[in-house]
Design goal:
By secondary structure, this protein is an alpha+beta fold. The chain has two domains: about 220 residues, Rossmann fold; about 120 residues, no CATH class. Helix content is about 25%, strand content about 35%. The chain is built from eight helices and 19 strands. The strands form four sheets. The protein has a six-stranded mixed beta sheet with strand order 6-7-8-3-9-10, sandwiched between helices. A five-stranded antiparallel beta sheet has the order 13-12-11-14-19. The protein has a four-stranded antiparallel beta sheet with strand order 2-1-4-5, covered by helices on one side. α2 runs parallel beside α4 and α3 packs across α4. The longest helix is centred in the middle third of the chain and has 18 residues.
């Protein structure tokens, strides 16, 4: 039976080093919940705390209303899928999937019924008598997924399960994992550093940095309305500009360093006057327009459905230490494409861009929510 997971003010330390200082999150029953962040942010540490592989130095983790802090890992009734599959090389596919059921002393008739069903769900019936060495990476990952689910766990935990697969197979397997999870209806916590994977597969995402959750929300909301500059630049690409926010009664607008003005009607009203801000514009939020910002094409990359241009602005207009300032042009709607060295004018979409405080800690757009 699936459960909700409540993480309440948990702390994780290794000696004097604090990995997770004070983290709380509620994961809904049956939800596909992804922990996303760069290496070392604490996402796998949190997953292992839920699993029972890591100790908890403070706070509580609950399955529904039951505190599980001191329950051994093997008694938490979790299914676990690892990066390296962790299937037995000397056992056939069917024997691998049966293994956990036999440990639980399940009757043979029920074992056969459960295994037949899960083989069908993960679509590996035709491979059930093969040894793992005769399987592709994607097929082996399906075996690991089947073995984790067949025991009817309360929670399914997945730690970077697709990172060893090639790009095409990752796309195929993330769809398979999503479909299986929805069919089984099990609460799933999934760890990845791959932003595209997280956006494609999750009900909700928690973006982590330095052991702290920066934002929790549905994939489209986190992408469109990131809560701070870190989330904005970690998920997808964002062009960051220096700017000034002007309040004048009910009217507000931002100006770029060169004086270019964009009227805004969706900002939190903080105070009258003006304040320095960071203006974030994703590459697809620019459009070619005679009233836009004047830019020069630095490089051009053809990517099939669109052309990606790296842009050259006056140095004082942009925040330092960015990989590049980019504009993505949809080929399907383009009148023409542009050449390296050409100057064009680009207009930011006022309804889509994000405005952050000068330190990047807060999004001033009304729809931006830190926790959803």
């Amino acid at each position: 039976m699936s459960v909700a997971i409540n993480v309440e003010h948990v702390i994780k330390k290794y000696g004097e080093i604090t990995i997770i200082p004070d983290l709380s999150v509620e994961i809904k029953n049956g939800e596909f919940f992804t922990l996303l962040g760069p290496s070392g942010c604490g996402k796998t540490t949190l997953l292992r705390m839920i699993a029972g592989f890591n100790s908890i130095e403070g706070g509580n983790i609950k399955f529904d209303d039951t505190i599980i802090n001191n329950i051994p890992a093997h008694k938490r009734n979790i299914g676990m899928v690892f990066q390296n599959y962790a299937i037995f090389p000397h056992l056939t596919v069917r024997q691998n999937i049966e293994y956990g059921l036999k440990l639980r002393k399940i009757k043979k008739a029920e074992i056969d019924e459960r295994v037949d069903k899960i083989l069908s769900v993960v679509k590996i019936e035709d491979y059930q008598n093969r040894l793992p060495e005769k399987l592709s990476g994607g097929q082996q990952q399906r075996v690991a997924l089947a073995r984790a689910i067949v025991i009817h766990p309360n929670v399914l935990l997945m730690d970077e399960p697709l990172s060893n697969l090639d790009a095409k197979l990752r796309v195929e397997m993330r769809s398979a994992i999503r479909d299986v999870q929805k069919e089984v209806g099990i609460t799933t916590v999934y760890v990845t550093h791959d932003q595209e994977e997280a956006l494609a597969i999750s009900d909700r995402i928690a973006v982590m940095k330095d052991g702290i959750i920066q934002q929790i929300g549905k994939p489209h909301h986190i992408y469109i309305r990131p809560s701070n500059v870190f989330v904005s630049t970690f998920i997808g690409h964002s062009n960051l500009f220096r700017g000034m926010l002007h309040y004048n009664g009910e009217e507000s607008y931002v100006t770029f360093e060169n004086g270019y003005k964009v009227r805004m009607n969706n900002l939190i009203h903080i105070n009258e006057g003006k304040m320095p801000v960071v203006i974030s514009v994703r590459p697809e939020e620019f459009s070619v327009n005679d009233d836009g910002l004047l830019v020069k094409i630095k490089t051009r990359t053809f990517l099939g459905k669109y052309v990606n241009y790296e842009l050259e602005f006056d140095a004082g207009m942009i925040l330092p230490d960015q990989a590049g300032i980019e504009f993505s042009q949809d080929i399907g709607h383009a009148q023409r494409t542009y050449e390296v060295g050409e100057k064009i004018r680009l207009m930011p979409n006022a309804s889509k861009i994000n405005i952050f405080t000068e330190n990047g800690a807060k999004n001033l757009v009304k729809e931006a929510l830190e926790y959803e």
